[in-house]
Design brief:
Elements: H1 5-30, E1 57-88, E2 95-113, H2 122-136, E3 147-162, E4 166-194, E5 200-205, E6 208-229, E7 231-232, E8 243-244
Antiparallel strand pairs: 1-4, 2-3, 2-6, 4-5, 4-6, 7-8
């Protein structure tokens, strides 16, 4: 018996509704899954370009906290002269020279990127902070802002008994280190494999770049050094006054620019008298 036109239309509409409903269920179960680090799925899923029913991809590798590249950007190690004093003894008797000064140096470490650190690449920021801090010998404390500064006050007190008619120099040098890196990293690197074709695709979660810099101060070289004789005394007459030596100077003061490091150089005040 033939169905009326209304009956065919009702069946057709019902069939369309059933097909659409089934399609929605299938797409929900096998559709493309967003590769997010905080909620990654181990279920079958689609990739871009797949056909509607081709949900044959699964994650086959997962590498958390993945460093893609670490590039050194700065490496400076140099002695910086903090104190340079010259003492001239124009007397035929020994005299005491002394130096008493304070200097302040600044230690600093800073890590940043073109995004706000927090959850994303936080592990990489902490690791980069620690690396710059250690390599620069920076005396700072780690914090969640990934920027720290600490001042170090250096109190220098040194004295020396200087022989007659001698000119000596006291220097204090401190080693300054600068270290800088650029790091490209991701919270995870993963590979998805199409189990139908065998094709694989590797991608990253929360990929980004960080830049870190550190400045620190460490070793010390200091001491007294003999420069030259600046006068002569008549040894046969203890009351005689000194006579200027050829080329001698009648005035002391600080010299300009770094001079030679005293020997022995490390924390030594046992030479130059």
């Amino acid at each position: 018996m033939a169905l009326p036109v209304f009956g065919w239309r009702a069946l057709l509409l019902c069939g369309v509704v059933i097909v659409i409903h089934f399609s929605i269920l299938c797409f929900s179960a096998f559709g493309q899954v967003s590769h997010s680090c905080n909620g990654h799925t181990s279920a079958w899923h689609k990739h871009a370009g797949d056909g509607y029913w081709q949900s044959w991809w699964k994650i086959t590798t997962w590498e958390p906290e993945y460093v893609i590249a670490r590039i050194p950007k700065k490496s400076v190690t140099e002695w910086e002269r903090l104190v340079d004093r010259i003492h001239s003894n124009f007397d035929c008797d020994s005299s005491e020279a002394s130096v008493a000064v304070e200097h302040t140096v600044t230690h600093t470490v800073s890590v940043g990127g073109d995004f706000e650190i927090g959850g994303r690449l936080e592990w990489a920021a902490g690791a980069l902070f620690a690396k710059c801090q250690a390599e620069a010998h920076a005396k700072v404390s780690f914090n969640r802002q990934y920027t720290a500064t600490q001042q170090e006050t250096i109190r220098i007190n040194s004295s020396k008994l200087i022989g007659a008619c001698k000119q000596v120099q006291y220097v204090y040098d401190k080693l300054r280190r600068e270290r800088g890196y650029e790091v490209e990293a991701a919270d995870a690197r993963f590979t998805c494999t199409d189990h139908f074709t065998g094709n694989s695709v590797t991608d990253y979660c929360n990929r980004g770049k960080l830049v870190g810099d550190g400045v620190g101060w460490n070793e010390v070289q200091d001491g007294w050094k003999f420069l030259k004789y600046i006068c002569n005394c008549d040894e046969t007459d203890p009351q005689s006054r000194p006579v200027p030596s050829p080329g001698g100077t009648q005035s002391g003061g600080a010299s300009s620019g770094p001079g030679p490091i005293p020997v022995p150089a490390v924390n030594s005040v046992n030479s130059g008298g």
